[in-house]
Amino acid sequence: MTDRQTIALVLGTRPEIIKLAPVLRELESRDHPYTLVHTGQHYSGNLSSVFFDQLNLDPPDYDLGVGSSSHGEQTGVMIREIEVALNEIDPAWVLVQGDTNSVLAGAIVTSKMDAKLGHIEAGLRSYDRKMPEEINRVLTDHASDHLFAPTESAAANLATEGITDRVTVTGNTVVDAVDQHADLATSESAVLERFEISPGKYLVLTAHRSENVDVKGRFRSIIEGVSRAADSVGFPVIYPVHPRAEERLSEFEFSIPENIRIVEPLDYLDFLHLEQHAAAMVTDSGGVQEESCILDTPCVTVRANTERPETVTVGANELVGVDPTKIATGVKAAVETDVDWENPFGDGTAAEQILDTLSEHYIVSDA
Ligand code: UD1
Ligand code: UDP
C-alpha cells in the first residue's frame, strides 16, 4: 500500500530491536502508519525473536533473511533486499538506529530513493576508523536528512563535520527502554536465583566486538584480566556469550577459568536485572556502557576508546584496554567507586522527541 505518511524502520540486530522498541511503541500510541523491515542480520532466537516476544512488539512486516557473511556480501545482499522492500512500502521517511551493517545498508538504499532518512543515535564517534561501526556511523550520518543526536557532544561531533542544520538532540532511546523495563525486570526476572548469585556480589562480562574476540591474544587477555579481577574482589563472573565470541572460544580452545561462568545470551529483562545488581560490568558493548551508566552500575570498558565518552566524563566508566593488570585494577576500583553521577543520555523521552520532530517539521499531519 502506498502511503506517503508511512515511516519505515530498518533494523537487523539485538541492540537495534531494544533501542527502537520505544519508537515503535510511540508510533503505535500515535496511531501513525509504519512498516518494520528486519534485515535478518541477527536471526538466532536469543538475538532476535526473544526481544520481539518479551518487548511485546509485533513481528517485522518484512524479514529479509540476509544472515551472516563477510561485510561486503552481507551489506550488498541487504542493499538489494532492502531496496525491494522499500520500493513496495514507498515510505515518506526511513529510520535507522545505530551503526551496524543493517544501518549502513538502509542508509544507502534510502539515499537513492524518494524518501528521507533519519538517523537515530547520530553523531557518535570513536575516531577509530578500524572499527566497521565507525565507518557505518560516519557514512550514515552524512547520508541523513535529519539526525537525532543523543547528547550535545554527539551534536558537536556532527558540527565538526559540517552537519549543523538538521540535527536535534533528543537523548538516547536506550533511556526510554530502560525506564520502560527496569521495574518489570525487578518484578519478573529470576536470573539471580537461577545463577545462585547475590545482589552486589558478582561481575558481568560481555565481549563481542570483532577487534577483541577475533584476535586470539586480545580475547585471552580479556579472559585472564577478568578472572584476575574476580579473584581480587572475590566475586564470580557471569558471561553471556554472543555467538561471535562463542565461535572464537571454541576455535581458540581456551580453557575458561572456574570463576567465569559462560551462559547463553540472555533475554532483555534478565540482562537488565543482572546489570541493575552487578558490582561492576566489564564490557566492550556500546549499549552496555550506556545502560550501566543509567542504572548506576560502574562499568569497565575493555577498549582503548569509546564513542560514549559521556560515560567516562561523568565517572561511570573507565577505559582499560585489554591488558590483564589494567582490567583487574580497573574492576577493583569500579567495585569500590562511589556511585554519584548523572545519567547523560536524556530523560527517557527520546522516542517522543524524535516523532515530534518528524511531525512538526516534515510529515504534513498525522493520519
Ligand atoms: C553486529 C554489529 C555490531 C553490534 C552487534 C550487536 C556490524 C558490523 N556489527 O556484530 O556493531 O555491536 O551486531 O550484537 O554490523 N551469528 C549467529 N546468530 C545470529 C547472528 C550472528 O550465530 O543471529 C554469528 C554468525 O556466526 C556471525 C557472527 O555471529 O558470523 C557475527 O554476526 P554479525 O551480525 O556479522 O556481527 P556481530 O558480531 O553480531
Ligand atoms: N543484551 C541482552 N542480553 C545479553 C547481552 C546484552 O539483552 O545477553 C542487551 C543489552 O541490555 C543491551 C544490548 O543487548 O541493550 C547491547 O547489545 P550488544 O552488546 O550486542 O551490541 P552493542 O550495543 O555493542 O552494539
What number of structural domains do the residues give? 2
Q: Please trace the helix and strand order, writing H or E for each element.
A: EHEHEHEHEHEHEHHEHHEHEHEHEHEHH
Helix count from the secondary structure assignment: 16
Strand order of the largest sheet: 3-2-1-4-5-6-7
* Portion of residues within helices: 40-55%
Might you state the CATH topology name of the largest domain?
Rossmann fold
CATH architecture of the largest domain: 3-Layer(aba) Sandwich
Task: Let me know the CATH homologous superfamily of the largest domain.
Answer: Glycogen Phosphorylase B
Structural class: alpha/beta
| Fraction in beta strands | 5-15%
Q: Judging from the principal axes of the Cα atoms, what is the shape?
A: globular
Subunit organisation of the chains: single chain
Associated small molecules: uridine-diphosphate-N-acetylglucosamine, uridine-5'-diphosphate
Rounded to the nearest angstrom, the radius of gyration is 20 Å
**CATH class designation of the largest domain:** Alpha Beta
DSSP strand tally: 13
Calculate the mean pLDDT score and round it. 96
The biggest beta sheet is recorded as: 7 strands, parallel
Describe the fold and architecture.
The chain has 367 residues and is α/β, with parallel strands linked by helices. The protein has two domains: 7-172 and 346-361, Rossmann fold (3-Layer(aba) Sandwich); 181-336, Glycogen Phosphorylase B (Rossmann fold, 3-Layer(aba) Sandwich). The chain is built from 16 helices and 13 strands. The protein has helices spanning 14-30, 49-54, 71-89, 101-111, 132-143, 152-160, 173-188, 191-195, 210-213, 216-233, 243-252, 268-277, 286-294, 309-313, 324-336, 350-361, and strands at residues 7-11, 34-38, 62-63, 93-97, 116-120, 146-149, 167-169, 203-206, 237-240, 260-263, 280-283, 299-301, 317-319. The radius of gyration is 20 Å and the shape is globular. The model has no long low-confidence stretch (mean pLDDT 96). The chain binds uridine-diphosphate-N-acetylglucosamine and uridine-5'-diphosphate. Uridine-diphosphate-N-acetylglucosamine binds at residues 13-15, 41-44, 47, 68, 99-101, 132-133, 208, 242-244, 247.
